[in-house]
């Protein structure tokens, strides 16, 4: 039996099962359903987001240069990038220590949580 052709947002008819409907909805190629431009709009939305972020960085850089903002108050994005590249080994070292602390903290919290959960479930008071 071939699956009926339905729109992805349509509901199954009375004589169809959910499996028929889901199979038909999944068989509709992207861009040919109810909203053929959805994929294009998603790409446009991503491009607008990236352009907006890049524009903010450019404005920030220009504002720091034009208004002579002290670096200790508001460093320019280029200064931040130079500092990141210059201290990358130090950041990596401290990042690994932080990752270890996060993992150990998670393991400890899970162990304590399970222990307390078992204790509470076996308690007659609760």
What does this entry show, briefly?
With 126 residues, the protein is mostly helical. It has helices at 18-27, 38-66, 77-86, 88-122.
**Total count of strands:** 0
Strand content: under 5%
Indicate the low-confidence ranges by residue numbers. none
Structural class label = mainly alpha
Report the order of strands and helices: HHHH
How many alpha or pi helices? Answer: 4
Question: How would you describe this structure in keywords?
Answer:
126 residues, mainly alpha, 0% strand, flat
Describe the structure.
The protein has 126 residues and is mostly helical. Among the domains are: 1-36, no CATH class; 87-126. It is 67% helix and 0% strand. It has helices spanning 18-27, 38-66, 77-86, 88-122. The longest helix has 35 residues, at 88-122. It starts with 17 loop residues before the first helix and ends with a helix.
């Amino acid at each position: 039996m071939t699956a009926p052709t339905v729109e992805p947002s349509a509901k199954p008819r009375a004589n169809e099962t959910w499996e028929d409907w889901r199979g038909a909805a999944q068989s509709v190629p992207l861009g040919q359903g109810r909203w053929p431009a959805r994929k294009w709009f998603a790409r446009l939305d991503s491009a607008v987001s990236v352009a907006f972020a890049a524009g903010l960085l450019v404005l920030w850089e220009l504002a720091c240069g034009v208004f002579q903002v002290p670096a200790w108050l508001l460093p320019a994005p280029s200064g931040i990038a130079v500092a990141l590249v210059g201290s990358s080994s130090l950041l990596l070292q401290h990042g690994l220590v932080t990752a270890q602390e996060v993992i150990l903290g998670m393991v400890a919290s899970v162990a304590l949580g399970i222990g307390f959960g078992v204790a509470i479930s076996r308690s007659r008071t609760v």
